[in-house]
Design brief:
Layout: E1 3-4, H1 6-15, E2 20-22, E3 29-32, H2 38-44, E4 53-55, H3 59-62, H4 70-83, E5 88-93, E6 109-113, H5 118-127, E7 130-134, H6 146-152, E8 158-159, H7 161-167, E9 182-186, E10 191-195
Amino acid sequence: MPQVSLSTLVAQVRSGESLVSFPTDTVPALGVRPDRADLVFAAKQRNLDKPLILMAATIAELWLYVTGSPAERQHWQQIAEQYLPGALTLVLPASDRVPPTMNPTQPTTIGVRVPHHPVAIAILAQTGALATTSANRSGQPALQTMAEIAVAFPQVFTLLPSEEEALVPTDRAPQPSGVASTVIRWTGKDWEILRQGAVRLEREG
C-alpha cells in the first residue's frame, strides 16, 4: 500500500485512477472520485445493489448532490446540523451531479455524510466529495487498521504516518468507534432507519 504525502494522495484521487484509504470516526474508508466508483466495486468484489456513500468535508457541499423542496431541505439541514460531522448517513434524493455508478440499481438516491475526523476532513477538503465505503472485501468485517488494509488492498494509497501526525498529533487523534454509521432514509415525510450504527437518532415529538 503506497504511503504518500497529502499532495500526492490528492493528486492520485483527482486522476481518477486510484483508490485511497483514510481514517474516519467510524471505520477506515476506501475512497475514490465519484465518477470512478466502479473501482471500489471491483476492488471490494461488491454487488452493484450495495450503494456507496458520498463523503464531503462540509455539510454545505453535500447539498450540491441532493434535490428536494425548500421545506425538505430545511428539515435535512436541521438534522445535519444536529448530527454532522458524525456517524450518521442521510439517504436523500440524488441530484444530477451524482454519477449513476455510485448507486447503480437505484440512482435516484444517495447516502451522504461528513465524518468527524480531522484527517478525513483534511483530505476531503482538498479532493472534494468522494465515493466511499468501509475498507474490506464485500461480506467480510470492516478492517480496522492501516496494516490490515495494506494486506487486503496493496494498491490503495494512504497518508504517510508523518503526514497524519502533522494533521493531528497522535496523543490527540480521535479514536474511531469501530462501528459503522447509522443510515437513515428520507421517505418524503419522515426518516426510516436502514442500519442502526454508532448514532442513536433522537425521535421528535
